[in-house]
Write a structure and sequence with these properties.
115 residues, single chain, 53% strand, mainly beta, 4-stranded antiparallel β-sheet
Amino acid sequence: QVQLVESGGGLVQPGGSLTLSCAVSEYVSRIYTLWWYRQAPGKDLELVESVDSNGNKNDGDFVKGRFNISKDTSKRTVDLQMNSLEIEDTAVYYCNAFIPWAEYWGQGTQVTVSS
């Protein structure tokens, strides 16, 4: 059974940084695409960043160059480096992966941006 486990969330001040990690129980090379999503209270799930097996990346319009997704094959993680955090970035962040031939979700990690 493939498992995804997010970590790295927490409380940060506006303008601060956090790095979220999605630990994958499979080899990172087997991941077709991994997405980071987020959901703020009362709002829909929205795409934050994604990376596919060829290294192609995609991000939400709100990211504006502040975030970066990267794979660490030695640690079996896909990390989301978040900089210049804003209050509006407060949400539960989830990783979602397609690994042949099924889709998997982590349990989420809370990010709170507050002064």
